[in-house]
Amino acid sequence: MKEEYNLTKLKSRKNSYTAKLKKSVTMRLSQDIIAFFKVMSIESGVPYQSFINLYLRDCVLNHRKIDISWDKETK
């Protein structure tokens, strides 16, 4: 292996796949929801936004659907 390499002739190029990996979105979340995920992220050592992404991915992979039926008496 060489001690030094001449990299001056190399052309840099942007990774075309990085923009496709994740998309930035703005969401309004309740403070208690954010606090919950922040605690979970600290326990797991994963940043909370990544933790939320992992949780949502798990929901997608397992075809989880939320029950959003509202009870008429609670209105």
Describe this structure in words.
This protein is mainly alpha-helical and 75 residues long. The protein has a domain at 31-61. Helix content is 43%, strand content 0%. The chain is built from three helices and no strands. The N and C termini lie far apart (73 Å). The mean pLDDT is 87.
Brief synopsis:
This protein has 75 residues and is an all-alpha fold.
Residue windows where pLDDT falls under 50 for at least 5 positions: none
* Rg calc: 22 Å
* SS class: mainly alpha
Q: Percent helix among the residues?
A: 40-55%
Give the end-to-end Cα distance, rounded to a whole number of Å. 73 Å
What is the arithmetic mean of pLDDT?
A: 87
Biggest beta-sheet profile = none
**What general form does the structure show?**
elongated
SS element count, helices: 3
The tally of beta strands, per DSSP, is 0
- The oligomeric state is single chain
* H/E series: HHH
Residue fraction in strands? under 5%
